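Q: Hi! First time doing this. I have a protein sequence and I read that you can turn it into a structure. Is that right? Here it is:
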Amino acid sequence: ARSNRTVRDTISRVQGKEDARSSRQPAHHHAEPQGRRGRFRAQPAAGQGLGTRTQRCHGPYPQRREGCLTMADVTVRTKAGTDSGSLQLDDSVFGITPNTAVLHQVVTAQLAARRSGTQSTKTRAEARGGGAKPWAQKGTGRARHGSSRSPIWRGGGVALGPKPRSYAQKTPKKMIRIALNSALSDRASEGRVAVVDAWDFEAPRTRDAVAALEALNVEGRVLLVADRGDVNTWKSFANLGHVHVISPGELNAYDVLVCDWVVFTKATLPGGSASTGSSAPVDSEPATDEEEQE
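A: Yes, that's right. Below is the predicted 3D structure, encoded as structure tokens:
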């Protein structure tokens, strides 16, 4: 039998191409990537490395290292604005690196818990009317319907509409504590934490509260943490819209983040603190037996 195919070249040759490459590989193919050309990165000199961890950290919190801050000092002032010593803020509360992921989750849960969840729509069973069949099943030439309160009808019920429910989320107590400490640490790193010796208002008066904030040089939205029993302080700041007064037990991450300043008293300052300066208590020497007898 004759074959329709004709032999083009009858000479013998090596199977494949002349450079022994596969027929499916392009000529510029390389077994290993050579990298991007034209980019040369500066190499460190001999004997030099990347440097210490502190030298390599250039973030928004340069004073932080190894995940925490050193203990920062804050000036304690009176309501008249004069200095009354200083305090060392607890680094476990005011000196941690803010955890933004935990902050986001805790604030989202707190805002979700504020929702009342009372929205409600009526289904086709709850909408009034629609008990009779609009028209006969057959013979009218129109689409078949069994109720005029179907979701596709005007004035009918709502399909898959919202119903009353709770939006509260379960948040671990440890996450709530970390979020609060992260928010306080962020305000402390910006120098937005003020400590007052005591308010000591003789009577509830808004004028005195405004004068005290001006003396402390506190501007913007203010979160003021006061004792629940300090009635004069609560009433003095009650009429100021930019001041939010809470008790120490109500301190939370959201209120700290939405306010520009956080003002504490020495009694409401969270965490243990060491006093220095004129406000530091002086330790007296133990009395001897002769002094006790006298």
